[in-house]
Amino acid sequence: MVQYCKFTCVDHQLHINLSNSFLYKYNSSDFNTIYPQQHKIFSKKEIEMELIPFLPEEIGLECLTRLPYTTHRVASRVCHRWRDLLESREFYNQRKQSGFTRKLACLVQSLPVQPDPKIHKPITPSSFGITVFDPNNQSWVRLSPIPKYPSGLPLFSQLCSVDGKLIVMGGWNPVSWDPVKDVFIYDFTTQQWRQGKDMPSKRSFFAAAALDGRVFIAGGHDENKNALKSAWTYDVRRDEWSELTQMSEERDECEGVVIGNEFCVVSGYGTEEQGKFRKCAEFYDMEKNEWRKADGVWIEGKCPRGCVGVNSDDGKLICLAELDSEVRVGTCGVKLGDLSLVTGSAYQGITQGFYTLNMNDRQNSKLKKIEMENDFSGFVQSGCCVEV
C-alpha cells in the first residue's frame, strides 16, 4: 500500500513523489523516458511493460488513480499505455469508486465585454461561455470555446454530464438566433471538444438531465413556438438517440432533474397557455418506458428554469428562489454533493450574487457569499454538476 503519493507539475514535467523515496519525473517533451532518483534511463519497452517501473501493477494503478484531474492531460502524454488508461471509462469508474473524483459546477455564463471608450457601453451583445467552479479550492476557470462557435455558445444551451464528460445541447445560433440541433462533448482528460450526433429535431427551452450513462430530454418548443410533449434519450457512449414515450402534456420552459432512478420534468406550459406554469410534474420510469404525473409538486405560476432543487431527505422538489431573498431573481443552482452553488439577485437589474449552501442542513445553513473576480461575475443562465 502506498501511504504517501504526491503529484506536482514542474517545468512541463509530471513529478510523482512516493513514500518509498522514489521520485519519478515524466517529461512532456520526451514522453518515453522516465527518470527515478537514481537517474537511470528506462527503455520504451520497459515502460510499456509496467505502469510505473519498480512498482507492482496494482500499486502503479493506485498511484495513477490519485492523479488530480488537472494533470490528466499531461499524464496521458507519458506513454500510450497511460493515455489509453486515463482516457478509459473503466479508469474513471475506478477513480469514482475510490473517492478520488471531484464535483465541479459547469455554468453557462455571460462573458466579459470590452466597452467602447467613446460611449462607455459594450460594443457587442453579451456572448456566453462555459465557466467551471471547483468548490474544493474555490477556483474559477473558463473552458476553451467550442470550435464551431468560437465567439460564444449557442444561446440557451442545455448542459448535462455523463461519465465525467460535459454535454452541451441545442440552443440558438449566437449570430442568427436560429435554433440548432448541435451536440458537443467536452472531455476533461484531453481538454478537447468533439461533436456528437445531432438532436433528432430543433427544440428550445427543454428539460434535460442525465441518468445511468444516458441523457434525457423532453418538452420545450419547436421552431414555430409550439410546445412539445415528445421525449428522447441520448446514449453518449454509442452516440445514438432513441425516442421515448410521449408525456401526457405539452411542457414548454420546463426543467429536468433526476430523483432516484427517474427522470423528472417539472412544470412548463402548453402552446395556448403562455407563461402559465403548472404545479405538476411528470416522472419517466426507464424500466416501464412510461410516464406518471404528479400534481401539486411545484409552485403554480413560477418558472422552474434553473431553480429546481431536490430535498435529499424526502426527494421532494425545492424552489431555490424561495430559499433567500438575495437569490429570488434569475436563480440558478447546481448541487455539488452536500454543497450547492446558488446564483441570483434580490431584484431585477442588479448584478448576480454567488453563494454556497449546505442543502443537507437547510434549517441551520445560510447562504455563504463568494467574492467574485470581474471575469467570472457575469450572468449565469444555467449549469450542471460534472464529476471528474
Automatic annotation (TrEMBL):
Give the matching InterPro entries. Answer: F-box-like_dom_sf (IPR036047), F-box_dom (IPR001810), Kelch-typ_b-propeller (IPR015915), Kelch_1 (IPR006652), KMD1-4 (IPR044595)
Provide the F-box domain boundaries. 49-95
PROSITE patterns attached to this UniProt entry: FBOX
Give the record's GO biological process terms.
negative regulation of cytokinin-activated signaling pathway; regulation of phenylpropanoid metabolic process
Record Pfam families: F-box (PF00646), Kelch_KLHDC2_KLHL20_DRC7 (PF24681)
Name of this protein = F-box domain-containing protein
Source organism of the structure? Aquilegia coerulea
Q: What is the lineage of its organism?
A: Eukaryota, Viridiplantae, Streptophyta, Embryophyta, Tracheophyta
